[in-house]
Amino acid sequence: MLFIFIFAGLLASCSDDTKLPALSKDATILAFGDSLTYGTGTSSNNAYPAALQRLLQRTVINAGIPGEISSKGLARLPALIEKYQPALIIICHGGNDILRKLNLSETSDNIQRMIDLAKSNNSAVILIGVPQFGLFFNSAAFYEELAEKNNIPISNDILGDIISNNSLKSDRIHPNSQGYQLLAEDISSLLQRHGAIPGR
């Protein structure tokens, strides 16, 4: 399992030259997404936002809604930004679009608009790539394209690595507590590499 985490970190797709603003101790982080953010398959205390909060010692809001498609998420995001004024937004969305075989160009556009909303609020953004649940569990190509276009960090492999390992998932598409912990650790490492939090 440690190998999976190290391997995923080495495969981080976005250049380490992409810098994020340092997160103050009182910064609020918005973890935004669907069931993978909500923590389906484990308890709320073991979902990745809760695990990440323990790792970072900063407030992480779990804004995951199981079953949500990206168009609904886009409609929901502005009120959350207004309420929490997050310094950082972690976007892990689009999995239900993929599962329902929706038009992924529209999914990409919806996530681009989420990124635009975040940036208009001066919130930093990172992306989590969601696998297409095929033979190799590779993330949909548009996640990497969005990261490059917007010059934002992305963790593009960790979910695929977790979901392809039966010991790290609770069902076909959701991690278990160990899997969510690895996801949180990967995000923490990403934030360190890009300057948002001090390295340990």
Outline the structure in words:
This protein has one domain (2-13, 24-193): Rossmann fold. A five-stranded parallel sheet has the order 2-1-3-4-5, with helices on both faces. The protein is globular. Helices cover 46% and strands 12% of the residues. The protein is α/β, with parallel strands linked by helices. It contains nine helices and five strands. α6 runs parallel beside α7 (141-150).
Given helix and strand content, the structural type is alpha/beta
Q: What is the rounded Rg?
A: 15 Å
Order of helices and strands: HEHHEHEHHEHEHH
CATH class: Alpha Beta
Kindly report the spatial arrangement of strands forming the biggest sheet: 2-1-3-4-5
First-residue to last-residue Cα separation: 21 Å
Percent of residues in beta strands: 5-15%
